[in-house]
Amino acid sequence: MDHNYRELLIRQQYRLHNDHAAVKLCHWMRQSLIYGRNCYKQDFYGIESHRCLQMTPAINECDHMCQFCWRVQGHDFTVTEWSEPKEMLDALIAHQRKLLTGFNGDGRCSKERYEESKEPNMVAISLAGEPITYPYLSEFIRECHRRKMVTFMVTNGTYPDELERLDVLPRQLYVTVAAPNEAVYRTTCRPKIGDGWDRLMRTLSLFPSLDTRTVVRHTLVKGLNLGWVKEYAKLDMIAEPDLIEPKGYVFVGGSRTRPAMSMANMPSHQEIYDFSEQLASMVNMSVLKEKPDSRVTLLGAPGTETDVRKLYGIT
Prior knowledge:
With 315 residues, this protein is α/β, with parallel strands linked by helices. It has one domain (3-69, 83-309): Aldolase class I (TIM Barrel, Alpha-Beta Barrel). It is 36% helix and 16% strand. It is built from 12 helices and 10 strands. A 10-stranded mixed sheet has the order 1-2-3-4-5-6-7-8-10-9, sandwiched between helices.
């Protein structure tokens, strides 16, 4: 990894393990520890925001240059040595504990919540990069499950062969569908590969056969990919996900440096909700939950159990 790139990531409060894995405290962990405000994942799925390990096993491996992505782009390099799963997980937990030390003794953060935060029970494999490119991903997920940690993972959908080869799947698997058709895909996701759309279609076709809870996430950017509800519905009907998350773009991180992006690209929650209601009616789902301060809704069949711990019997 280039020295300047490493220093940039550290200034942005990433903590790195070797040249490929990273952890970073998310906004909602801070909110949870200090103010008792929760991430939408807690409200939707029952996970605990202050006990979440937001990480990536492959920080710079991605074949998209998405307009809306918050990560730093344009620093590609080849990973020459990948860490073993247990070593990586232990290292990232240790990094997170160091990042959390500032909350110890802060009068706004209770001692109990601080101590709980040092023992993460949720792993969000989604910080940056494409996690499926980590060669020991199945073993890593297995190690997380051995420790009774809930696992959520987000993929961009352009690695269907690698997805199909996974021996162990996360408890909840997301695929980001950020375009209703190939033309919008090319302007929104800016793929580095020529067959990205075809690969995404293969992933959507694979989704119904996967033995885990599946979620399609629509990251929606006003003026770029918001709209086309009928076309999104057709894609969702191919994937047959258990749940759908329409989520509004937020003008943060690296996306602020891109000429095409501005505050005006952030949809209001009402716009996300209106999109969700239209989509739900087309895919035989309902709007189960919403989180206005995160501009996100959750679609599913009426009566769907959304609490991941209850779903998998995790105590």
